[in-house]
Amino acid sequence: MSPKPLHILITAGPTREYLDSVRYISNPSSGKMGFAIAAVAARRGHHVTLVSGPMELKPPASVNTVRVETAAEMLAAARRAFRCADAAVFCAAVCDYRPLNRARRKLPKSQAALTLKLTPTPDIAATLGRVKGRRISIAFALEDHDGRRKAEAKMIAKHADAIVLNGPINIGSDRATVEILRHGGDWTALPSATKPLIAKRLIELVEQIAGECGRAAPSRR
Ligand code: C5P
């Protein structure tokens, strides 16, 4: 239990980026990691806002859950929660691109090839990282090669205090093998563990950073 409760924003799950009224592009993120972090944080007495993409999982009790679908909706909800947050854990598997145009009605099928023009979605962690002030920010990086180098670059680009590196094998699984890099520190490789156990390590890290920086009091920002 942390000495003082923190306000923690957690983004979780995938986003859906629509090309017409019913079709979308997305990814297979289960949201298990984000939900586990939210559950652990709430159990340890923190005030949690979970901004969640579409998922089958039931959100943990005593967590303020905001359901969203698209990256733009996730950014808007995260931005609102971030205002009074002390810390944010950006766990969501946000689609990096969305169809440039969303047709109002279902596109008719035809035998002709269909070319989709995609445009980048907003980077929520980076956008909020730029205005984080004294807030603590933890980002994730999913990499299939050259993981440490890429994750460290992302930590810096997103102004994160730490980054959690994981691989595609962890998607949808109840367990994960991750490595954590703290800004200005060294890599820590955690042994394979359940997502709730990893979540506990991450919330302990948030509490530790908050304690070191005197940020353990509930936010007044
Ligand atoms: O750049 P990349 O997508 O690999 O970065 C992953 C990290 O950034 C994760 O913490 C993820 O939640 C966050 N992210 C985000 N908004 C995006 C893309 C990624 O918040 N559009």
Short overview:
By secondary structure, the protein is an alpha/beta fold.
Uncertain segments are: 216-221
Question: What is the terminal-to-terminal distance?
Answer: 23 Å
- The secondary-structure element order is EEEHEEHEEEHEHEEEEEH
Using only CA atoms, what is the Rg? 18 Å
Instruction: Report the average pLDDT across residues.
Output: 93
Number of helices: 5
Bound molecules: cytidine-5'-monophosphate
- Large-scale geometry: globular
Strand content: 15-25%
Portion of residues within helices: 25-40%
Structural class: alpha/beta
Which SSEs are present, and which pair or pack?
Blueprint: E1 7-12, E2 17-18, E3 24-25, H1 32-43, E4 47-52, E5 64-67, H2 71-83, E6 87-90, E7 97-99, E8 118-120, H3 124-129, E9 136-142, H4 147-157, E10 162-166, E11 175-176, E12 179-182, E13 187-189, E14 193-194, H5 195-212
Parallel strand pairs: 1-4, 1-6, 4-5, 6-9, 9-10
Antiparallel strand pairs: 2-3, 7-8, 10-12, 11-14, 12-13
Bound molecules: cytidine-5'-monophosphate (C5P).
Description:
This protein is an alpha/beta fold and 221 residues long. Helix 1 packs across helix 5. The protein is globular, with a radius of gyration of 18 Å. The chain has helices at residues 32-43, 71-83, 124-129, 147-157, 195-212; strands at residues 7-12, 17-18, 24-25, 47-52, 64-67, 87-90, 97-99, 118-120, 136-142, 162-166, 175-176, 179-182, 187-189, 193-194. The model is unreliable at 216-221 (pLDDT under 50). The longest helix is centred in the C-terminal third of the chain and has 18 residues, at 195-212. Strand 2 and strand 3 form a beta hairpin. The strands form 4 sheets. It has an 8-stranded mixed sheet with strand order 5-4-1-6-9-10-12-13, sandwiched between helices. The chain is built from 5 helices and 14 strands. The structure holds cytidine-5'-monophosphate. Cytidine-5'-monophosphate (C5P) is lined by residues 11, 71, 90-92, 94, 96, 121-125, 139-141, 154, 158.
